[in-house]
Amino acid sequence: MTSALSGLRVLDLSRVLAGPWASQTLADMGAEVIKIERPGAGDDTRGWGPPYAKDVTGNDTSEAAYYLSANRGKKSLTIDMTKPEGQEILHRLAAECDVVIENFKVGGLAKYRLDYASLSEINPKIVYCSITGFGQDGPYKDRPGYDFMIQAMGGLMSITGAPDQEPGGQPMKVGVAVADIFTGLYATIGILAALRHRDATGEGQHVDLALLDVQTAILANQAMNFLTTGKAPGRLGNAHPNIVPYEAFPTADGYIILAVGNDSQFRSFCNVAGIGHLPDDARYATNRSRVANRETLVPQIRQAMVMKSTDDWIAILETANVPCGPINTLDRVFDNPQVKHRDTVRYLDHPTAGKVPTVANPIKFSKTPIAGETAPPMLGQHSDEILRKVADLSDAQIAKLREAGII
Questions:
Q1: Which GO terms describe its molecular function (predicted)?
Q2: pLDDT of residue 57
Q3: Which of 98, 180, 208, 213 is catalytic?
Q4: Within 13 Å and on the Cβ side, how many CA atoms surround 114?
């Protein structure tokens, strides 16, 4: 079967995470992604380790795990874009591509004639996606933006972590770079929408993605909690601002997540937990009342939960149709039978490591399945292939460029 995006070609000028996450997603769905990297250095994340992938003898390769997480399915071409000869090659490639992705600072590519205005003259159908910290306009447009600071500026850290009055209470970032990853996913959505418009009208366009915009957008219900009340929500640790009980509870041997989403589930939970009288108390009969009276309700639930082990509670609560789950470490995540059944971890052939693991794209298509994934490329692994096939250069021309340090 052909993949959903077979025949689409992407010129990927991005590096680190947000841009590469977008281009990896497009590659997973069948697009040919040409990753442009600096000769001799490549994407910064190649060196963001340890850990690194191991070669067949057990020694570290040059491929950091961080780099491997965001560059599956691509082809690597090394070009010095600061040189006119390098820019000319990129212009040739842009003329043959459908999409360009870049995450340089605003205006940073104009001096190389690789900005949207320049490339759209060469290819009016190009969909050009720019990813920056703060967008292409506004008072902050020239500032650099990094995930950690965006999580802070965008309000996420103000609602993440334990309250100040609890031990260790302080604002916390999320354990993965969610501002970057969500921006990569929104970029993918924007690119696909722009391609739909291009296919209908024949014209490309500039897609402008900002980490701060995305971080603000994904505040979701918390943003609306503020906008409807004018009161900024605070940190509740693992508790939910709008649903009770919906948090982590200690058990006899650890913790369990209890996610009671409606009044019926609350009654079922109370019946099996030995606190069946609580749903008949007006203070706890509805979710609205439970949210208002969480300070008196939650201690009673905690007292019941510590009487049994996590595994015992899971068995009991699943039988009663009460949503719950353990707090798994990553070794338990990847050993989970459901995760295994969904073919979440795959092993891809690699030139020096033999095989490298990857976490599969979670999209399951019935007609155009994700297939044929390849390992993240070695630096410059596909340079000659791309220059011959796409840029239409001869072997002699390629050799001359290599001798001059352009590729």
A1: CoA-transferase activity
A2: 87
A3: 180
A4: 32
Separation of alpha carbons 247 and 23, rounded Å:
35
Give me the amino acid identity at 3: S
Percent helix, strand and coil across the chain, each to the nearest 5 = 40, 15, 45
Name the nearest CA neighbour of 98 among 213, 205, 172.
205
- Contact between 97 and 11 (Cβ < 8 Å): yes
- Asked if residue 100 lies in contact with residue 127, where contact means CB atoms within 8 angstroms, the answer is yes
Do 143 and 221 contact (CB within 8 A), yes or no? no
Burial of 230-244, coded b for 16+ CB within 10 Å and e otherwise, reads: eeebebbeebbeebb
Strand partners, 208: 130
**Which of the following CATH numbers is that of domain 9-218+342-403: 3.40.50.10540, 2.40.40.20, 3.90.1150.10, 3.40.50.300?**
3.40.50.10540
CA-based nearest residue to 354, from 375, 340, 334, 382? 375
Geometric angle at alpha carbon 147, from 144 and 153, rounded to 5°: 80
Could you tell me which of 2, 69, 74 has the C-alpha nearest to residue 32? 74
Q: What is the pLDDT of residues 261-308, one digit of tens each?
A: 999 999 999 999 999 999 999 999 999 999 999 999 999 999 999 999
What separation in angstroms does the CA of 334 have from each of 54, 181, 275, 348?
Answer: 20, 21, 35, 17
Active site residue 280: no
Report the distance separating Cα 159 and Cα 392, nearest Å: 53
Q: What b/e string do you get for 37-52 counting C-beta neighbours within 10 Å, with b at 16 or more?
A: bbbeebbebbeebeeb
Quick count: other Cβ atoms within 10 Å of Cβ 269?
A: 25
| Distance from C-alpha of 255 to C-alpha of 249, rounded to nearest angstrom | 5
pLDDT tens profile 150-171? 999 999 999 999 999 888 899 9
3-class DSSP state for residue 188? helix
CATH topology for 246-328 is formyl-coa transferase, domain 3 (3.30.1540)
How many C-beta neighbours within 10 Å does residue 336 have? 13
- Rounded CA-CA distance 47/40 in Å is 12
